[in-house]
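Consider the tokenized backbone below.
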């Protein structure tokens, strides 16, 4: 399962919290016996290092300096991609990978998953706002690791990929 942990500078508000990724990685590994792969670009080097250093179970850091075709190759090796509304989401959709994605600052109606995933949509009053930055990030804080874990479990189960 690939966890795309960043969102780029233009829309930092698409980025889910580090704590959420840590908890999710541990639950996916412990409860589903999944192999977790951290994905991202150059801006996620420190973020992924922190996540990998704080998980209770080992994760694979795929690196953050891939070319576009290499990044697509890594995504294509994953059964499921967990990401915000990012390049990784669009590549995963194009590659017909399963997806669990979260929307806060952007509009979920603009993205079709073609029956291969689940959207977690913030219920914050201010969402979607399309802001590049936000002091509170209330929209992304409202999406819990438990919500994301259960969406992952459901998507994997629906597609016959759940081992337990």
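A designed sequence for it:
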């Amino acid at each position: 399962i690939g966890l795309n942990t960043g969102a780029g500078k233009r829309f930092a508000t698409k980025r889910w919290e580090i704590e959420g990724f840590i908890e999710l990685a541990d639950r996916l590994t412990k409860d589903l016996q999944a192999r977790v792969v951290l994905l991202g670009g150059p801006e996620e080097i420190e973020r992924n290092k922190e996540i990998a250093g704080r998980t209770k179970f080992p994760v694979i850091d795929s690196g953050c300096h891939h070319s576009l075709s290499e990044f697509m190759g890594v995504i294509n090796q994953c059964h499921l991609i967990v990401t915000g509304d990012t390049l990784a989401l669009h590549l995963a959709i194009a590659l017909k990978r399963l997806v669990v994605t979260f929307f806060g600052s952007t509009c979920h109606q603009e993205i079709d998953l073609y029956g291969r995933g689940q959207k977690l949509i913030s219920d914050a009053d201010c969402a979607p706002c399309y802001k590049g930055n936000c002091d509170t990030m209330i929209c992304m804080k409202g999406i819990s690791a438990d919500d994301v874990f259960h969406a992952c479990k459901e998507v994997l189960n629906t597609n016959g990929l759940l081992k337990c």
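The chain has a mean pLDDT of 87.
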